[in-house]
Amino acid sequence: MKTNGILTAKFVLLFGIGCVGMFAFGSNANANRIPVPPSINLTIGDQHELGEVQPATSEGDDDITQYVNFMIGLSLGGSGHVVVGPRNNLVTRSINDFGCLPSPATLVLRWTGARIKLGVQGTYNYLFAHYGGSGGGVAEVWYVGNLSGLISIPAIGFDHSLSSWALFTASGGAVSDGGTTAMLLGPALGALGIVRAVFDGLRDLAS
User: Fold this and answer.
1) Alpha-carbon gap, residue 182 to 8, rounded angstroms
2) Residue 94 contacts residue 65 (beta carbons within 8 Å)
3) Which site in 29, 49, 90, 164 is 20 to 30 Å from 198, CA atoms measured?
4) Using CA atoms in the order 13, 19, 22, 23, what is the torsion angle rounded to 10 degrees?
5) Could you tell me the mean pLDDT of each successive run of 10 residues in the chain, 207 residues long?
6) What is the pLDDT, as a whole number, of residue 203?
7) What residues pair up with 81 in beta bridges, in sequence order?
8) For residue 146, with 0-12 CB atoms within 10 Å meaning exposed, 13-18 middle and 19 or more buried, which class applies?
9) 103 and 172 in contact (C-beta within 8 Å)?
10) Do 116 and 148 meet the contact criterion of CB atoms below 8 Å apart?
């Protein structure tokens, strides 16, 4: 009887592990079938525009962070000057109303290219793009806190080529892109519970 109990327990254990494997595979398959959303195309002066900086000739990390935070504090359609060394930069706020803007902005990433991956909505709040060389140019700033996934920005703006872009988050910090991981974590924990129950049954039958 004890031998039969052990064999039965082994069968239950193998069956449980097989079910867990099939469940995990099915979960991954379902996750892989989620369609990839199309890229969002941002343009100069569109409904996502937060404002502009002209000439934006000082481009250090601290400089562009100062531009963005000054812009956040402006009223709709307002403008003001940010002086960085000998450079006097005019910062203008668009008339787009995004409600209460999160602040202060903190620079988290700088790169080049016209396609940008934002991750899940709320990961980043502001996108700063500089058009032109180090001796001059114009910067466009978009509010992207309500956007997610892949976005595209113009390769040419204000008659200048795109030189670089920067992403900012607010004081709350950037949120990890863990949407799929979070969806699969619950089922994975449930599967571990099944395995534990099978092992408990095996131990009872073998005793």
Assistant:
1) 35
2) no
3) 29
4) -130
5) 44 41 46 60 98 92 97 98 93 97 96 96 96 86 97 96 96 44 40 47 50
6) 53
7) 90
8) exposed
9) no
10) no
User: Where do the structural domains in the chain lie, given as residue ranges?
Assistant: 2-35+178-206, 40-169
Pairing of strands 150-152, 40-41: parallel
pTM: 0.66
Distance CA(54)–CA(91), nearest Å, equals 7
What SS3 state is found at 166? strand
The CA-based angle 2-7-13, given to 5 degrees, is 125
Q: Which two tokens stand for residue 69?
A: 């935070």
AA letter at 183 = M
Task: Report residue 149 as tokens.
Answer: 């996934």
- Output the pLDDT for position 116: 97
- Element at 193 (helix H, strand E): helix 179-206
* C-alpha span between 54 and 196 (Å, rounded): 63
